[in-house]
Amino acid sequence: MRLLAALIGLSLLAGPAAPAPVPLEGWGWPLPPPRHVVRGFDPPAQPWLPGHRGVDIAGYAGEPVLAAGDGVVSFAGSVARVPVISVRHADGLLTTYQPVQTRLRAGDPVEMGHRIGRLVLTGSHCLPDACLHWGLRRGVDYLDPLALLRLNPVRLLPLEGPLEGIGPVDDEIRVVEGRGDQ
C-alpha cells in the first residue's frame, strides 16, 4: 500500500505529460516516422578512440532514405565497400547516411524530406536486420543527430542534497539525457 501511495505521489509531482518533441525548424527524420533508435550516439573520449559517432535507426532494405535538411550532396560513393551519402548544409553542418544506395552525385541539391536513396543491407550496423546509421558533424566534431529532432533534452539535477527517492547526488552536475527511441 505504501508503494502504491508513493507511486501516486510521484505521478502527481511529475505534472502533466510533456508535449511531443518538435524538430528544429528545417530538420526532419531521415526515414519516414515513426522510428526506433536501435543504438544512440556515444562519442569517444578522444577523437582517435572507438565510439559510435551517430545513431542507428531501425529500417528495412529498400526503404527510402530522406534528406534530414536542405543542402548539397557532398559525397556519394563507397567507404570500405559501404555505400554512403553525405549532405552539406548551409549552417556548416554535414549529415551522413549509410548504408544508402543513391543515384545522386556530389553537387546535387537536396531538400528536407526528399528521397536521397534507399536503405540497403550491405554494411548495416544491425545485420541481419537493416538500419540506417545517421551521423552529424560540424567541422571535425561529431554531434548527436537526434538533437536536430529535439529528442535528447538535457536536464540538470541540483548540486547539493539528496533527492527524495533518488539517493545522494555526486558533487558535480549530473546530466540526464532523454531516450532517443521515440
Instruction: Kindly state the number of beta strands.
Output: 13
Q: Provide a count of the helices.
A: 1
C-alpha-based Rg, rounded: 19 Å
How far is it from the N-terminal to the C-terminal residue, by CA? Answer: 32 Å
Overall shape: it is: globular
Roughly how much helix do the residues carry, as a percent range?
under 10%
Order of helices and strands: HEEEEEEEEEEEEE
Topology readout:
Blueprint lengths: L1 H13 L22 E3 L15 E5 L4 E3 L4 E9 L2 E7 L4 E6 L1 E2 L7 E2 L4 E5 L10 E9 L2 E3 L10 E3 L18 E3 L5
Antiparallel strand pairs: 1-2, 2-10, 3-9, 4-5, 4-8, 5-6, 6-10, 7-9, 10-11, 12-13
Question: Could you provide a short overview of the structure?
Answer:
7% of the residues lie in helices and 33% in strands. With 182 residues, the protein is mainly β.
